[in-house]
Specification:
The structure holds two protein chains of two kinds.
Chain A (H helix, E strand, L loop, with lengths): L3 E4 L2 E5 L4 E7 L4 E9 L5 E8 L4 E4 L2 E6 L4 E6 L8 E9 L6 E3 L3 E6 L1
Parallel strand pairs in A: 2-11
Antiparallel strand pairs in A: 1-3, 3-8, 4-5, 4-9, 6-7, 7-8, 9-10, 9-11
Chain B lengths: L3 E4 L2 E4 L4 E8 L5 E7 L6 E7 L2 E5 L6 E7 L2 E7 L7 E8 L11 E2 L3 E5 L1
Parallel strand pairs in B: 2-11
Antiparallel strand pairs in B: 1-3, 3-8, 4-5, 4-9, 5-6, 7-8, 9-10, 9-11
Classes of the chains: A mainly beta, B mainly beta.
């Protein structure tokens, strides 16, 4: 059974700092991994999606990497800003059952001005 | 409207009520999903529909009844709910056919449900 964990559960950093969020999964048979951000009480906004054959994806100040064999993904945020404060979620889609999507519990990020 | 919309945004209902949540996607996608997000728990996938056919039911109690009349609309009918069903219910869609399949999901803003 696939399990997805995210470390740390919460993170507080000063503005301008570079930071890394971690996502781990137990079953490496994934089709893709998607990173989202969620603002309090709101829906999810897609940030980056990495297919299982890819190693990384970049969008602006965000870079996501995937090491499928070791069951890990990282989300790197450069030059953090207060507007980056949100909860960051990773989700894996299973290779054997494309309709199965498992989410991690999220990392709550606070960027202090 | 664009993207994925959900109505109502907030709903308070008693345990004996019957209500429905509505989701509409304007992205031309063929797959739609219902998720439940409870406090301090990861998002839980509830149902998946692909071209109006239910392809996933994640052991959801029968007091939740989904309906997908077409690829753009998804409903979640609620009846005799329990207080522990209070949560944020999120709808998502993705494009699961075509030459460049990524299954990237797009979410709606959610319906905050409180069962009293």
């Amino acid at each position: 059974k696939q399990e997805v964990t995210q470390i740390p559960a919460a993170l507080s950093v000063p503005e301008g700092e570079n930071l890394v969020l971690n996502c781990s999964f137990t079953d490496s048979a994934i089709y893709n991994l998607q990173w989202f951000r969620q603002d309090p009480g709101k829906g999810l906004t897609s940030l980056l999606l990495i297919q299982s054959s890819q190693r990384e994806q970049t969008s602006g100040r965000l870079n996501a990497s995937l090491d499928k064999s070791s069951g890990r993904s990282t989300l790197y945020i450069a030059a953090s800003q207060p507007g980056d404060s949100a909860t960051y979620l990773c989700a894996v889609r299973q290779e054997t059952s494309y309709d199965k999507v498992i989410f991690g519990p999220g990392t709550s990020l606070s960027v202090i001005p | 409207e664009t993207g994925v919309t959900q109505t109502p945004r907030h709903l308070v209902m008693g345990m004996t009520n019957k209500k429905s949540l509505k989701c509409e996607q304007h992205l031309g996608h063929n797959a739609m999903y219902w998720y439940k997000q409870s406090a301090k728990k990861p998002l839980e996938l509830m149902f998946v529909y692909n071209f109006k056919e239910q392809t996933e039911n994640n052991s959801v109690p029968s007091r939740f009844s989904p309906e997908c009349p077409n690829s753009s609309h998804l409903f979640l009918h609620l009846h005799t709910l329990q207080p522990e069903d209070s949560a944020l219910y999120l709808c998502a869609s993705s494009q699961d056919i075509g030459r460049s399949i990524t299954y990237e999901q797009y979410f709606g803003p959610g319906t905050r449900l409180t069962v009293t």
